[in-house]
Amino acid sequence: MAPTIVLVPAAFTPPEVYFGFVSAMQKHGLETVVVSLPSVGFREDGRAPGTMSDDAAEIARVVTDLYDNQGRQELVLLTHSYGGIPASESMKFVSTKNRNGKMGIDRIIYLASIVLPVGVSNDEMRKRPPPAHAIIDDDWITTDHALDAPYDFNDLPANEGLAWASKMKQHSTASFRERATYPGYNDVEVHYIRCTNDAVLPSEATDRILGIIEQSSGKAPTVHEFASGHSPPISKPEELAMFVKEILGSP
To answer: Are 140 and 175 in contact (CB under 8 A)?
Structure first.
């Protein structure tokens, strides 16, 4: 039986952006649940912007509910971009190692994802000024859609990229400033999908991420190359669904 996939979104990205990909996954027999990250989008109830820890806690809540209340037998995390950070952090709660004898996560597929060494934040990891499309205003970062489109959606026609960029929401600055406290990639089997035309994570940045995982865990991640830009769930949903199915070894 194929595992259920828990998809952890990129920064700025609401769950509905992934619904086309979720449909493609379903067509290939892979039920996919998308986490709604507290760090994404203004909070109408007036609460403070979500932190990275809030995101990790929400991932843990979704995973725990699927295991303990909905009877799922196997879950695999599929993270996209920023989603790799809180997903790794969430392993302190939901990896098999930390579930006290109950079923837990033992595989993560990082899709063009960022991971952090313990004690380092996303802002510190970047080691360069924010990209030109990022507009920082105290608690929130917004994006200039016209500048963002050729960066995040560089493998789509310009008009389509702009349409998808316009769906992005605000993102909490606090989540980028918070330092990682748990090397969750040490607890699991790690697969990393490296997008070969990625304008967000160029080759040297991806090499650094892979090195962090290997140095910490003592094991090299299994790397899979995929011909796309940074956001294949949007630009190549069908092809990516088949690719993920192959990685999982699902019949």
So the answer is: no
> How far does CA 2 lie from the centroid of its chain?
21
Q: What is the mean pLDDT of residues 106-116?
A: 98
The closest of 19, 204, 221 to 111, measured between CA atoms, is 221
Measured distance CA(104)–CA(96) in Å, rounded: 4
Q: Which residues contact 82 (CB under 8 A, 6 or more apart)?
A: 9, 10, 11, 113, 114, 122, 171, 175
- pLDDT digits over 49-85, tens only? 899 999 999 999 999 999 999 999 999 999 999 999 9
- Strand locations in the chain (E): 4-8, 32-34, 75-80, 107-111, 134-137, 140-143, 171-172, 189-195, 222-226
What does the pLDDT read at residue 88? 98
Whether the CB-CB separation of 101 and 32 falls below 8 Å is answered with: no
The model's pLDDT over 5-58, given as tens digits with 9 standing for 90+, comes to 999 999 999 999 999 999 999 999 999 999 999 999 987 777 788 999 999 999
CB-based contacts of 166, cutoff 8 Å, min separation 6: 145
Residues 49 and 16: their CA atoms lie apart, in Å, by 20
Residue whose pair of structure tokens reads 């016209």 in the numeric block: 146
Alpha-carbon distance 209 to 248, whole Å? 22
